[in-house]
Amino acid sequence: MKGDKEVIRALNKVLGQSLIAINQYFLHARIVRHWGLEALNDSLYKQSIAEMKWSDDLIARILLLGGLPNLQELGKVLVGEDVPEVIDCNLRLEKQKFSIITDAITLCETKSDYVSRHLLVTIKDGNEEYQDWLETQEDLIESMGAERYIQSQISDDDEP
C-alpha cells in the first residue's frame, strides 16, 4: 500500500515524540525508584510502556503505508532533578506531543486517511489521560507540599 508522503512524515513526527517519551518516562521511573518512590515509579514506568506500544503501532502503520520509520531524529529528553521537576518535565513533553498529534490528526482528515487518524486519536486520548494525571500530581504537590507528596509515593514493603 502506498500512503501519502505528508501523512507518513506526520506519523514519523508523532513517532519521534513517542520515542522521546519512552526514554524520558523510563529514566524518570528509574530515578524515582532509586529515591525509594515505588508508587511514582510504577506510574511512570507504566506510561513508558504505553508509549512503547503506541510507537510499535506507529511503526507498523508507517511500514504499511510504504514509509520508513524514523528512529534517528530524536529530540531532547527533559530530565527532572527532583519530584516536582520530574512531573513538570513530563507535563511539558505531553503538551508538546498534544500539539503535534492534533496537527497530524487534522492532516489525516484532510488526506482522508481515517485508519491513521483513528490510531492517532487513540494515542491522543491516552496522552490526554496521562496529562490529566500529571496535572493532578502537580495539584497534589501544591496542596500537600512536596515533602508530604513524596512520602505518599513511598511503598511500605511490609504491607501485604
Write structural notes for this entry.
This is Bacterioferritin. Iron-storage protein, whose ferroxidase center binds Fe(2+), oxidizes it using dioxygen to Fe(3+), and participates in the subsequent Fe(3+) oxide mineral core formation within the central cavity of the BFR protein shell. With 160 residues, the chain is an all-alpha fold. Helices cover 77% and strands 0% of the residues. Helix 1 runs antiparallel to helix 2 (38-64). It is elongated, with a radius of gyration of 17 Å. The N and C termini lie far apart (53 Å). The relative contact order is 0.17. The model has no long low-confidence stretch (mean pLDDT 94).
The topology string of helices and strands comes to: HHHHH
Q: Could you give a short account of the major beta sheet? A: none
Overall average residue pLDDT: 94
Specify the overall morphology.
Answer: elongated
**Rg calculated over all Cα atoms:** 17 Å
**H/I helix tally:** 5
State the helical fraction: over 70%
CATH class bucket = Mainly Alpha
Strand content: under 5%
Q: Which architecture name does CATH use?
A: Up-down Bundle
What is the CATH superfamily classification?
A: Ferritin, core subunit, four-helix bundle
Low-confidence stretches: none
Annotated CATH topology: Ferritin
SS-based class: mainly alpha
Total number of strands:
0
Distance between the termini: 53 Å
Tally of distinct domains: 1
